[in-house]
């Protein structure tokens, strides 16, 4: 294997992966953006809200990038300590209160507290809790990872995996929202092209988005990484497809 492989892998293996800022991948990987422009659309709703809550905020990057502010207060929750510290750092000067939460019921808020609840790429969605903390007439607005998203990546590293049973189907989200008493007012899906231009980009991605290959380490998957490096050099970018869906649900009132 050429020295370029070792240099790319070593560089990517040493980069910090806390938070949800993917700017290190600029020029090294791309992913299409969904047509509904989640952050802009979220900002419009925040600007109309009195009290807003962002669940599983990660490092707070999405909320920090929204220029609008809710009239009374903005709150965000996060469970993973490194992300929690990054979110507090990113949101402190934005006037957003960041609360440690274990991502399982109950949310640490009173019934009917928020007229807007948002979440970008939640790992889990506890619909009954969302409905509980929403005020009457309040809205849940979320972009979520769709079924079998990026399966080309984990198929490459783990071998062909079953598809069609990811528990991330939009229809299941609709059913969960409605079972909690919410009215789904918008549900849209998109398939988006992903490209990885070098093996270092993939190493960084798998270190950061750990559920793709849960046991990933450079040492354990070195053979597959070498094969990927050779494939990219011979054929160009490694292409995969992410899937996203947007759901907006309202609490009657």
Automatic annotation (TrEMBL):
One GO molecular function term of this record is: S-adenosylmethionine-dependent methyltransferase activity
Q: List residues of the Methyltransferase type domain.
A: 53-140
Please provide an example of a Pfam family that matches this protein in its UniProt record: Methyltransf_11
Q: Does Magnesium appear among the keywords?
A: no
Q: Which UniProt keywords apply?
A: Methyltransferase, Transferase
Q: Which domain of life is it from?
A: Bacteria
Do the record's keywords include Methyltransferase? yes
Q: Which GO terms describe its biological process?
A: methylation
In terms of Gene3D superfamilies, this protein maps to:
Vaccinia Virus protein VP39
PANTHER family according to UniProt: METHYLTRANSFERASE, METHYLTRANSFERASE TYPE 11 DOMAIN-CONTAINING PROTEIN
Stated name of the protein = Methyltransferase family protein
Which species does this protein come from? Saccharothrix texasensis
Biological classification of the source: Bacteria, Bacillati, Actinomycetota, Actinomycetes, Pseudonocardiales
């Amino acid at each position: 294997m050429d020295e370029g492989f070792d240099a790319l892998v070593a560089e990517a293996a040493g980069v910090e992966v806390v938070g949800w800022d993917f700017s290190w991948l600029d020029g090294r990987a791309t992913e299409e953006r969904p047509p509904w422009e989640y952050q802009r659309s979220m900002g419009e709703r925040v600007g109309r809200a009195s009290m807003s809550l962002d669940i599983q905020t990660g490092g707070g990057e999405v909320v920090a990038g929204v220029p609008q502010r809710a009239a009374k207060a903005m709150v965000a929750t996060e469970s993973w300590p490194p992300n929690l510290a990054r979110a507090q750092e990113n949101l402190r000067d934005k006037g957003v209160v960041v609360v440690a939460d274990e991502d399982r019921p109950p949310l640490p808020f009173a019934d009917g507290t928020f007229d807007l609840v948002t979440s970008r790429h939640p790992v889990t969605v506890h619909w009954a809790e969302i409905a509980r903390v929403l005020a009457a007439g309040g809205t849940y607005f979320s972009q979520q990872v769709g079924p079998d998203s990026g399966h080309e990546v984990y198929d490459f590293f783990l071998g062909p995996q079953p598809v069609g049973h990811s528990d991330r189907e939009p229809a299941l989200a609709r059913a969960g929202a409605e079972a909690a008493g919410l009215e789904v007012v918008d549900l849209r899906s998109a398939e988006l092209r992903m490209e990885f231009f070098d093996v270092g980009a993939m190493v960084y991605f798998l270190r950061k988005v750990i559920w793709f290959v849960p046991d990933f380490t450079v040492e354990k998957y070195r053979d597959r990484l070498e094969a990927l490096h050779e494939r990219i050099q011979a054929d160009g970018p490694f292409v995969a497809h992410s899937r996203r869906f947007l759901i907006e649900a309202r609490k009657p009132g």
